[in-house]
Amino acid sequence: MELSLNQTADVEQLKQKLTTAFPSYKIKSPLLNKKIINVVNGPVMAIIIPKNNKVKVVGNINLMLPWMFVLFVILMALTLIGGLIFYGVMYYVKKEDFKSLETEVSQFISKEYI
């Protein structure tokens, strides 16, 4: 979901606002890219990518949970198709959850910056 903003969104300021607005979610940046914000709620996550006067919010599953990661790696090592089937099943099962997280974060950003 792409949002057009009236003003530019500073990454650190947006991160602070998200932390105060969603105290139960884990707000962090990826290891090598500090311009992107991840909002993690268990096995689902929303990825926020601010660029100039636009913000892109994308929902996805969080494969970095220990049991998901280990199972995914084992299935990918044994059979490539097994890992892809696992990812597809998890994507289908959690699709409603990460879409709702995506809209929740998008509504907050649009309320704050539009």
Summing up helix and strand content along with how strands pair, one would put the structural category as alpha+beta
Please state the average pLDDT score: 91
Shape descriptor reads elongated
**N-end to C-end Cα span:** 15 Å
Helix tally equals 3
- How helix-rich are the residues, as a percent range? 40-55%
Rg, nearest Å:
15 Å
Query: Could you give the count of β-strands?
Result: 5
Largest beta sheet: strand ordering = 1-5-4-3-2
Strand share of the residues?
15-25%
Order of helices and strands: EHEEEEHH
The biggest sheet amounts to: 5 strands, antiparallel
Low-confidence stretches: none
Q: What would you note in describing this structure?
A:
By secondary structure, this protein is of the alpha+beta class. 51% of the residues lie in helices and 24% in strands. The chain is built from three helices and five strands. The radius of gyration is 15 Å and the shape is elongated. The mean pLDDT is 91.
